[in-house]
Amino acid sequence: MATFKAIVIEKAESGTKAALADFDETNLMEGDVTVRVDYSTLNYKDGLAVTGKAPVVRRFPMIAGIDFAGTVEASSHPAWKPGDKVILNGWGCGETHLGAYAEKARVKGDWLVPLPQTMSAHDAMAIGTAGYTAMLALMALERHGLTPAQGPVTVTGAAGGVGSVAIAILAQLGFTVHAVTGRPQEADYLKGLGAAEIVERKELSGPVKALAKERWAGGIDAVGSTMLANLLSMTRYGGAVAACGLAGGMDLPGSVAPFILRGVCLYGIDSVMCPIERRREAWIRLEKDLDRRKLAAMTREIGLGEVAEAAAAILKGEVRGRIVVKIG
Q1: β-strands 216-221, 299-303: how paired?
Q2: 320/300 Cα distance (integer angstroms)
Q3: CA atoms within 13 A on the CB side of 108
Q4: Is the same domain home to 137 and 257?
Q5: d(Cα 123, Cα 145) in Å, to the nearest integer?
Q6: Are 14 and 58 in contact (CB under 8 A)?
Q7: Least crowded by CB within 10 Å, which of 130, 293, 300, 324?
């Protein structure tokens, strides 16, 4: 009977419990592609699932992990054959479908995208859902018509995974980026990624005005709640903000004033069920528009046995940039 190592989340008397365990391959869920997982990554949602701080997991037992890059072992799907290098982001993995913190995964072939030719599996997971989400946010701002000539843009949660990749991409494309962070000690790191100015978090953490002084042409927000409401109130006429996170909360304590008096647009970014063609476009753009040297500078690697500790740290805001999880 074949088994493999996985981080398995089980129901416990007080919530849930995650542990590194042997998992029986016969208990993998239905899917037409079986993948040998090479690398995964750690996102904020993974932190919530592994620690049990939020009800991310919807069935038990669950293998945690929402992302993987790996090699196809077996496939009955017409698009994939053994040996193909593939990426998966989201689709409920680690929530309703057995996830990525495991040496093997069985998934639907329709969920997979090809690993870009010039990108390693390690690079792909250094990007992960956080970086892929950052690119989806940028693509939304581009569809809005935002260009570097319209003025500076801001990135909240700047030292985190989404924020770090967003800064690097925006700077690469010629935008003047203002990085919002509550960790002033990370100023040199953020400037190294391309931030032109560091904004203290407290400037966007106070009471929300219906309309504040116009500061930015647009922004990417990974925090939500009061910070997002303040960002909207400070966005210039005709600008846009792409919202993709909730680390600060799910509420939005603002007003309609930015929308109806300044024509500001708020774009919601969903990475989990995003259509496959937009996913493919995002990964093509990431291959082209993300400086790999900057990606390396924001990334560190851990093993499966270190995921629990890292999951607790990411929820405390103690993780800088991206964490790659080496599988096996």
Answers
A1: unpaired
A2: 9
A3: 9
A4: yes
A5: 29
A6: no
A7: 293
Q: Rounded to the nearest 5°, which phi and psi values hold at 248?
A: -90, -5
Whether residues 109 and 153 fall in one domain: no
Tokens 């009061």 belong to: 226
Among 100, 97, 82, 44, residue whose Cα is nearest residue 328: 100
Q: Which two tokens stand for residue 281?
A: 């476009």
Could you give the CA distance from residue 124 to residue 327 in angstroms, rounded to a whole number?
A: 14
Q: What residues form DSSP beta bridges with 45?
A: none
pLDDT given at position 169? 97
Q: Are strands 15-24 and 3-12 parallel, antiparallel or unpaired?
A: antiparallel
Q: What does the pLDDT read at residue 14?
A: 82
Bridge partner list, 5: 22
Backbone angles phi, psi at 286, to 5 degrees: -65, -40
Question: Does any domain span residue 284?
Answer: no
| AA identity, residue 234 | M
Strand locations in 25-171 (E): 33-41, 62-63, 67-75, 85-89, 104-107, 113-114, 153-155
pLDDT averaged per 10 residues, the chain (length 328): 89 89 93 97 93 90 96 97 97 95 96 96 96 97 98 96 96 98 94 97 95 98 97 98 93 97 98 94 97 95 95 92 92
* Residue 162 contacts residue 130 (beta carbons within 8 Å): yes
Taking the mean position of all CA atoms in its chain, how far away is CA 137? 11
DSSP assigned state of 273: S
The CATH number covering residue 196 comes to 3.40.50.720
Same domain, 102 and 196: no
Q: Is the pTM of this model over 0.85?
A: yes
Q: Strand, coil or helix: what is 153?
A: strand
Domain with 52, as residue range(s), is 3-115+298-326
